[in-house]
Specification:
The chain is α+β, with helices and mostly antiparallel strands and about 325 residues long. The protein has helices at about 5-15, 55-75, 105-110, 130-140, 150-170, 175-180, 240-260, 270, 275-285, 315; strands spanning about 30-35, 40-45, 80-85, 90-100, 145-150, 230-235, 265, 290-295, 320. It comes from Actinoplanes campanulatus.
Length: about 325
């Protein structure tokens, strides 16, 4: 086996690890092309939510999360690498530079890839430690974004925005029809959200979770969100490259949360609807572009965990070329 072949195989493994990245409605809207000297990331617009996400913001964040997953895998294997971000396709190019002894911290982060998941159950009464929250804000900043932790008054305002966004999206018949193709059922096609990951009933929380229009089988528990921390991921830019970086930052925070035993639930509704996204920006004091709202808490583990979401087969998302 030549050195080029070995490097290509390692890049292919990194692309394979990226299959487990989070994506909006588990659409997995990415494709990797592996060469002996580089790894290229492309968006798959056929899996774009055209009515919910016409500007491709959530698609780009999903691809950014996959990019971060691949980079974590390379870090854990000791590969120093650089990332190019072309103005057009591909979205990103990863080039390995040299291989060193892997940092144990990078290996620990890699271990979180298979453990990370979306937890839509209610949270316990145990708050997240302040030092742990500081680690999350640091992870976001290191990846090129910011994480604003909301005050109690801001959470009340957020609850109103979430409700308004939900009403706007529920009234859109085309959007609802689109959602129904990705949510519910047993998801034998390897994409979407299965019944076992969807709440069996709405949780009694201040900030409502997304109403998918489908009743699942996941018991949500009797908890509330009184001990939960809500945060807004934001940045200074609103270009496609900024949304890609936002996905990397989200993934960095999510993996850090997983390592600390904290459940993260994304709430994208307020940034998908124009007027609620604008008001969310005002809530931040106009200092940046809001990318996503996150709920951070210690999960109530008294009930069963969510069913794992399916994944597309590796041959459908990774192409190897000479």
């Amino acid at each position: 086996m030549t050195a080029d072949t070995q490097t290509r195989d390692l890049l292919a493994q990194a692309a394979g690890a990226a299959r487990y990245a989070p994506s909006v409605h588990n659409t997995q809207p990415w494709r990797w092309v592996v060469y002996p000297d580089r790894l290229e990331l492309f968006a798959v617009t056929e899996r774009q939510l055209r009515f919910q996400d016409p500007d491709q913001h959530m698609l780009l964040m999903s691809c950014g999360a996959a990019l971060h997953h691949a980079r974590v895998a390379l870090d854990a294997d000791g590969w120093v690498h650089e990332v190019e971000r072309p103005a057009a396709e591909p979205l990103a190019i990863i080039r390995p530079l040299e291989r060193r002894t892997a940092d144990p911290a990078a290996v620990r982060v890699l271990d979180q890839l298979s453990r990370r998941h979306t937890d839509r159950r209610t949270m316990s009464d145990e708050p997240v430690d302040v030092k742990v929250l500081d680690a999350f804000t640091a992870a976001a900043e290191q990846a090129g974004a910011r994480l604003c932790l909301l005050s109690r008054d801001q959470v009340i305002e957020l609850a109103v925005l979430v409700e308004q966004a939900q009403k706007a999206e529920t009234s859109d018949d085309l959007l609802q029809a689109e959602t129904s193709t990705w949510v519910g059922g047993d998801r034998a096609d390897g994409t979407g959200i299965p019944d076992g990951s969807l709440p069996a009933e709405p949780a009694q929380t201040t900030v409502a979770g997304r109403d998918f229009g489908v009743t699942g089988t996941l018991p949500v528990g009797a908890g509330h969100d009184s001990a939960v921390t809500y945060a807004v991921l934001y940045g200074t830019g609103d270009e496609p490259a900024d949304w890609l970086r936002a996905g990397e930052a989200l993934n960095a925070v999510w993996l850090a949360a997983t390592e600390h035993g904290v459940a993260l639930t994304p709430l994208s509704g307020p940034v998908e609807v124009g007027f609620t996204r604008q008001r969310l920006g005002h809530m931040l004091g106009g200092v940046g572009t809001p990318y996503l709202v996150t709920r951070l808490g210690i999960a109530d583990t008294s009930g069963p965990a969510a069913e794992p979401t399916p994944r597309l087969p590796v041959e459908q998302v990774v192409e190897i070329r000479d």
